[in-house]
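Lab notebook, page 48
Experiment: co-folding of the full assembly
Goal: obtain a model of how the components sit together before planning crosslinking
Operator: M.T.
Materials (sequences as entered):
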Amino acid sequence: MTEHAHETPLEGGAQAAAHGHEEHHHATPMWLLVAVIVALLILTVVTVGVAMATPNVLLAMFIATIKASLVCLFFMHLYWDKPFNSIILVISIALLGLFLWFATLDTGQYQHTVIPEYSVEGMQKLRALEGH
Amino acid sequence: MSTVPTDNYLTHSRGFLSWALTLDHKRIGVMYLISTLLAFFVAGVLALAVRTELFSPGLTWVTADTYNRLFTLHGAIMVFLFIIPAIPGALGNFILPIMLGAKDVAFPRLNLASYYLWLIGGALAVFSILQGGLDTGWTFYTPYSTESARKGVVMVVTGVFILGFSSIFTGLNFVVTIHKLRPPGMTWFRLPLFLWGIYSTALVQVLATPVLGITLLLLIVESTMRIGIFNPDMGGDPVLFQHFFWFYSHPAVYIMILPGLAIISELISCHSRKPIFGYKFVAFSSVAIAAFGFLVWGHHMFVSGQSTLMSMIFSALTFSVSIPTAVKMFNWTATLYRGSISFCTPMLYALTFLFTFGIGGLTGIFLGALSTDVHLHDTYFVVAHFHYVMMGGAVIAMLGGMHHWWPKMTGRMYNEPLAKLACLLVFIGFNTTFFVQFVMGSLGMPRRYYDYVPEFTIYHQISTIGSYILAVAFVLMAGYLIASLFRGPIAPANPWGGSTLEWHCASPPPHDNFAITPTVGEPYDYSGMAYNPQTGGWEHGHPGKAGPATHGTT
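Observation: model returned without errors.
Model output:
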């Protein structure tokens, strides 16, 4: 049996060494973790405050995006990871944006063609009439 | 004559548990192969049942309700249990790490988990369909699917949800494996094109499949909690369901076809004994197909009530996919030019693919064009196009790949004349079944209909006879492949003269694939290879370029 037989593939020394990069297990300092959680809590309070003062979805989404970015960067280690991981995340978000953009654009376009009689309220009225 | 290596992945350990709990990518690949082929068999029998019913107008042998269930089961099993997982799960798992020069995939446990998720999800979906008699078709369109919740939609959808996780696990594993486990010298542009194709597929699996999960979850929420999301009766929007569904399911079409395209690149290069023409273009075209695949989902919805503006945008975007696909087709054809072509069975499947996938691709233009699609939508033209792409493309490519790597996987050669005969029967049967469907579709025969006007009888009868020819071909194929396991000649390490790394290790490969991590050169360098009549295989003349064909024990 070879000496590599009991290693998991990612531990295959020859391959990792050949690429000249070892596995880094970055330990996030405690103060940073605490700072991030405090920032998240403050931003949550800000969200509630803003919602009570001037309810605005865009503003709420903006704050939520900052919070999500903090989580991804520090709790999920993207800040220290290779850029490839961030690229995948950005592509995922871009695809989500594309989906929402096209779907809402479509809904906005065909909404005026919906026949009111077949809407929920219209059907309820029809059923009420049938009931009588 | 060669002998079977005494220590190979099949003999390395024995007993049921050694297979059930294996972390060896080759064994998992074999388990995937057997399981997906069983699913293919079941769905194939259902297709025969459907075609038999359509042999004559009206009732032939099953009722209309049973017919609806038969085609739903056929579609759901073929798509979710066979085409999506078959090539990545079976051939990808077996070949990818060896072709890469690695000992295994990056996460062997995740790999085994993906197989068991496939089993659980598949069993749940199939039993639910059988129990509840689901008849929505494989697309689960609302509001019909939410209205027929009592018929087992929720359970079936849960099964498909679990299958989605299986697909994500496999994709994630392959992305990490290709990034992290490449040996010295295996730069991105030395990756065999099979790996580029599987890599692109894996990206789509990871990025698109979660959307299917969300969609199905919303469907379950609507069905069970009566929250209006898609059902207009509850204030929902059924067109939104189609947006959700096709945002996954169109990229899923590329999950199905990209691995097939990847196989064809290998077959054409190897059996023409020429480096692939325009390697970088073929490699990037896989990534481009995967990327464009995310932009075109609305072409499934031209007559759904989707707005005219969006239909126009999607129609225009749809044509973008044809560019990288055509790059592949032209480059394969250019590779054949002045090649030393061997008409062995895998190559016959590759040539069949060029013909059938070409028709499938070109008829897609009719459906991508907004004006013609309005006429052809939901007719047999769509059925024919879909089958020319999925069966004429993905399945034919898989059969080619299976015949190409069968000696590597099993250590045995199959009966070549019978294999050629089966390939010919597949070609005849396939075209007889589906080409005529283009004609009846353009004449207005709607798909999924149980009954039809007598004018369409002759077309349906030709199609049904074609499906029987296909059945004969597959029975023959099963016969000689199973027979080869017991009586087939011992396969040499490199029976086809392949240049990629999987042909550098023994057939069947040893447990660890390579005792020494190989150093690699150009993937399609056929110079310096010589045929050895004593072993019946080809031998590599560049010992410095790749590790020796060892048996894994030192």
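Interpretation: The longest strand of chain B covers residues 530-532.
Next step: discuss with group before ordering constructs.
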